[in-house]
Known about the structure:
Helices cover about 60% and strands about 5% of the residues. By secondary structure, the chain is α/β, with parallel strands linked by helices.
Amino acid sequence: MKYQELIKKIKAQDLNAVYLFTGPERHIASMMEESLIQSIIPEGLEQINVMRFEDKEADIADITGICRQLPMMSPYRVVVVREETGIPHTADNTIIQNFCDYLKDPEPTTLLVLYDSKPDKRKKIYKCLKQQAAIVSFDKLNQIELEKWIGRRFHQAGKKTTQRVINRFLEKTRYLTNESQNMEMVDHEIEKLIHYVGEKEMITQDDLEATLPPTIDDNIFRMIDCAVTGKMDQAMLMLKNFYLEGESPFGVFALLAGQIRTMTMVRILSERRELPSVIAKKVSRPPYVVKKMMANSHHFKMAKLYQLIMTLGDLDMAMKNGEIDPELGLERLMWGINDQ
């Protein structure tokens, strides 16, 4: 099940004795863990009825022993076993058997939560969990889910904003385009934005720009835009600023190449008259980014875009083989973008 279904089950007090939390979004999983605790353990009794195991030294006998203990002044106790214990991926047959024996007959007054972000479905522990536990997937949110999350956060804080601001927020946080970005980071930026506006109810784009600094992707896009529109002085200054900020020429090249390749694909698909929403799915970019790329791509003839793709391949090889200085290679590439 997804976390949204778990929320409904918590509200209905339709709970399982054992849960397996999977997926990369540990921040959301931790929030659901707290929701479970708050729903079944009286306030003030958490310290004596919640036990968390986080170390590799955690002993399976201790874990199952505590699971068998009766709660104190509470209808339930909660036992949380983190992935860091190594139990979900252990090869120790004694541990595996002990754990699976407990899963077959879990204590009805104990709620056991086990974390495993990437479960190995071949292992016996996972097979036991699949039979006995409720498996909750905490995958990365899609755009609709993310927009709802942001809207709910703003609403809880008594704030309002526009769809345009939300779109810009998604673009600047890069959650949808960068696998390394997670909801903990998104929530941090939301809290920073809410704190910045203070008592003001409406969050504007100016507020957003003031609290979220431009990302390197933003600046790469602006650099391409400057080159496309003939503002080469600004483009070359931005390129030099990347180096001053500690970015390597190879890193800048990778981002630049990625945007040019995606822009070319966007142009090809748009000429086939595909909708921006369809193109966005095919190139794995949000629709609002695709619209910007569509506008920029039409500054080029298709032959020029194909030529740039060939240039990228040649330059990548020449830089890696030491045939050209990377910084000089990038300067030539930028002038090539300008030469339409």
